[in-house]
Design goal:
The structure is a single chain. This protein is α+β, with helices and mostly antiparallel strands. It contains 11 helices and 8 strands. The protein has an 8-stranded mixed beta sheet with strand order 2-3-4-1-5-8-7-6, sandwiched between helices. α5 packs antiparallel against α6 and α6 packs antiparallel against α8.
Length: 441
């Protein structure tokens, strides 16, 4: 009866130098490099190491199989630990490793010996085609897992699963763990921001919209609050999008891993293995669903607060508009009264102007053409003075309007000037003719 250890070291592509250095270390310690491993039967009984390809890329896997022995893995585990810790820089570049304790003894014997070294991570047994497997230890933060598998037949499908299938599954687990770490940090940040925005919303609603001091706030202050609410609303939408993206990435990774596990022919109970290795990630998915619902609720609350503030602004603006309209109405009434008074004063000024012009025109006519003045009948003088004075008053008003930009009075102004000239010519001509007639007699 014999046992051996399979250990798989995982490196990023940029750390390929560390993988090569670790390979050289195994080679110096008697391990033989094998280019291609298809089954345990083609392996030499001594230590062997080989490289594995990861279908998803970006990872490099170094696989090591220890020599066969009968001390139930203790010596092999100590040797592997020593080789790993020879160069601290190499140890720091290792993303994680998978360890499989294997042997061809009865399962009960193997399990008892393994539990003497490691306390079992779980009692759930993963049924294989020709054996069993269970997890002895699992550290998600270090990317390390230890499994017990047995009994192992060199030509069985179990051996192929241990050499190729299981390490590839663990590589998928490492990718899932990296995603989980990112989602955890993102979730903490989003939850903290959400809690702060919830508190801010409560403060705004109670101190600025509900309490009496809200009645004293101006519309400008409420508009600034609306801008703050809109900014927070945008942050919530962004956080919700980030959560949805993370949730989609996690569900995609889980689905890929589940398909990969289901495709392994060696596994009789793939659902058990999937449940074991993804239990914490299922909880992360539930957390993401929960925070998405919480963000949606807070976002709806912010939308409601924005609607309330906008409604309050509309009410305040309506009141302001009504007050402004009342003031405008009062100003219009005052303006109407002033216009009425202005018309009265305008008529009075026009009448005074007319009387003054009529008086001085009549007086000037009597002094300049006294002879004609005494000959022309008084009623003709009265008509001519009234027409002449009235025409001058009309013309002066038209001139004032024209110079103020009222170009539409241009025709009336021309007519008034023509009438003025005709009246003036008529008065001059009539006075001369009347004076000559009086001198002839």
């Amino acid at each position: 009866m014999s046992q051996f250890v399979l250990r798989f070291f995982y490196f990023l592509e940029e750390d390929i130098k560390s993988l090569k250095k670790l390979s050289e270390s195994f080679s110096r310690n008697g391990f033989i490099f094998s280019a291609k491993i298809s089954s345990l039967s083609v392996m030499p009984p001594g230590g062997v190491f080989y490289n594995l390809d990861y279908p998803q890329g970006k990872l490099r896997i170094l696989a090591v199989k220890t020599p066969l022995n009968d001390d139930y893995w203790e010596t092999d585990l100590n040797d592997l630990r020593s080789l790993k810790e020879e160069d601290i820089l190499i140890a720091n570049d290792i993303m994680g490793h998978l360890t499989i304790l294997a042997g061809d003894d009865l399962w009960e014997d193997l399990s008892k010996k393994a539990e003497a070294i490691f306390s079992g991570e779980t009692d759930d047994i993963i049924e294989l085609k020709n054996g069993k497997m269970k997890c002895l230890a699992h550290d998600r933060h270090k990317g390390e897992a230890i499994y017990l598998c047995g009994p192992v037949d060199n030509e069985s499908v179990n051996a192929s699963f241990l050499l190729h299938g299981m390490p590839v599954l663990h590589a998928g687990m490492l990718r899932l763990q990296a995603l989980d770490f990112i989602l955890n940090d993102r979730l903490l940040s989003i939850r903290r921001e959400k809690d702060e925005m919830q508190q801010d919303l409560i403060k705004i609603l109670h101190t600025k919209l509900v309490m009496d001091q809200a009645l004293l706030m101006a519309a400008e202050e409420l508009e600034s609050e609306t801008q703050g609410l809109a900014t927070a609303y945008g942050k919530l939408v962004g956080d919700q999008s980030m959560v949805i993206d993370g949730l989609k990435s996690l569900e995609t990774a889980l689905l890929q891993l589940e398909r990969q596990i289901n495709s392994e022919a060696a596994l009789l109970t793939p659902a058990v293995l999937f449940a074991q290795i993804t239990q914490s990630y299922q909880q992360r998915r539930e957390d993401l669903h929960s925070i998405r619902e919480e963000l949606n609720e807070v976002r709806e609350n912010y939308q409601a607060a924005i609607d309330v503030v906008q409604s309050k602004i509309q009410v305040m603006n309506s009141r302001t508009n009504i007050a402004a309209q009342e003031q405008i109405k009062g100003l219009l009434e005052v303006n109407t009264e002033m216009q009425k008074q202005g018309l009265v004063f305008q008529y009075a000024a026009g009448l005074i102007e007319f009387i003054v012009l009529a008086y001085y025109s009549h007086t000037l006519w009597s002094h300049l053409q006294h002879t004609a003045y005494t000959v022309i009948p008084s009623w003709i003088q009265f008509i001519m003075v009234l027409a002449f004075s009235g025409n001058i008053v009309w013309a002066t008003h038209l001139i004032a309007e024209y110079y103020q930009g009222e170009v539409h009075v241009r025709k009336k102004l021309i007519l008034a000037i023509i009438l003025f000239l005709l009246l003036f010519a008529l008065i001059i001509t009539g006075s001369i003719m009347a004076g000559n007639h009086a001198g002839g007699h």
